[in-house]
Design brief:
342 residues; alpha+beta; 8-stranded mixed beta sheet; 7 helices; 19 strands; 24% helix; elongated
Length: 342
């Protein structure tokens, strides 16, 4: 079990992709860092699946792309197909940009395993799971935290606190930072399978106005479909084999597919009014929630980590003035809003 020390340069709350990426970046810079997560292990449900070339570059800087245990699928093209399954528009993605393909897909649980495995190579980074933040107090000298693990209350002092604790972020709530935006009334159904009926490396948007959709392949034999849920749909029948046969029958026999996830969700578009308050910073979903259609939700969190962590490292090493940290939200808020609007 990880021994939690009394003092750190940085404490990160939340060990999802954003928090674990930030911890890897700080570890590379030799910054004394604690990462806590209230869950005992990673969430095994696949959620994010797409990584743009910007995300690939960020993962490359912390050597995650070289992990032999982590699989990716390079996407060759994106097609928009009409009701008759005819491709009316497509974009080829073969040409790399800045050294990486424009889009690759991945399995989020495997990515999170890789990120956490990488943390073990940094002696300056501690990862404590089954550990919950109870309260914190920020002052000019740093942040005082109380965390709970196995019934024990532990006090920790940090110079900076990074909130990577998700869309409902208790840290953001305590700081009373607004989280404005929209919740869309239209629901979508999502289906993940382990036995991909067609071994293609194409993303396909269905532009049938009666039922818009998107499907994309994952690594190995995985594939995801998402469909609009219509007002007259019976929620209890959405994932019945008979209904799935209508939706994805053109891809193959539903009975031959192994379903790993099925869910109905409503997507949100929100951003925090500020990403910094004192020595506390919001990153990832605690700072912004992005609709899934451009695949930029997790990517936005990775950009947060990339923007902030080198600055914190430079401040801790006294290479730059703490005032450089003010640029984090100045740079990230406009870009986050631009992605959400798009």
């Amino acid at each position: 079990m990880t021994i939690i020390k009394q003092s750190y340069d940085v404490v990160i709350v939340g060990a999802g992709p954003c928090g674990a990426t930030a911890a890897n970046m700080l570890g590379q810079s030799g910054i004394n860092t604690l990462v806590i997560d209230k869950e005992a292990d990673i969430v095994t449900i696949p959620r994010a699946v797409g990584m743009c070339e910007g995300g690939s570059r960020i993962m490359d800087t912390i050597d995650i792309l070289d992990d032999p245990d982590l699989g990716f699928r390079q996407i060759n093209s994106v097609h928009f197909r009409n009701k008759k399954q005819q491709s009316v528009f497509h974009a080829d993605l073969y040409e790399p940009e800045n050294g990486h393909r424009l889009l690759r897909t991945f399995h989020q649980p495997d990515l999170e395993k890789s990120l956490r495995k990488s943390l073990k190579s940094y002696e300056c980074v501690d990862l404590a799971t089954s550990t919950e933040l109870l309260e914190f107090e920020d002052s000019d000298s740093g942040v005082l935290l109380k965390v709970k693990r196995d019934g024990e209350i532990i006090k920790v002092k940090a110079r900076y606190l990074l909130a990577c604790d998700g869309a409902s972020s208790p840290i953001r709530v305590k700081l009373d930072i607004g989280f404005s935006g929209d919740t869309y009334p239209q629901q979508w159904m999502i289906l993940d399978v382990e036995k991909n009926p067609q071994d293609s490396s194409e993303v396909v948007f269905g532009i049938d106005p009666e039922r818009p959709s998107v499907t994309l392949p994952g690594p190995d034999n995985k594939r995801r479909w998402e469909f609009v849920v219509k007002k007259d749909d019976n929620p209890d029948e959405l994932f019945e084999p008979k209904n799935l046969a209508k939706l994805i029958g053109n891809w193959g026999n539903v009975d031959d597919m192994e379903v790993s996830r099925k869910a109905v969700y409503t997507f949100h578009a929100r951003t925090a009014a500020q990403y910094q308050q004192g020595n506390v910073f919001l990153l990832g979903d605690s700072a912004h929630i992005t609709p899934p259609f451009a695949g930029q939700g997790m990517m936005a969190g990775l950009r947060d980590a990339q923007n902030l962590c080198w600055k914190i490292a430079a401040v801790v090493k006294k290479e730059l003035s703490p005032s450089v940290l003010d640029s984090y939200q100045v740079e990230r808020i406009p870009q986050s809003r631009q992605v959400i609007k798009f």
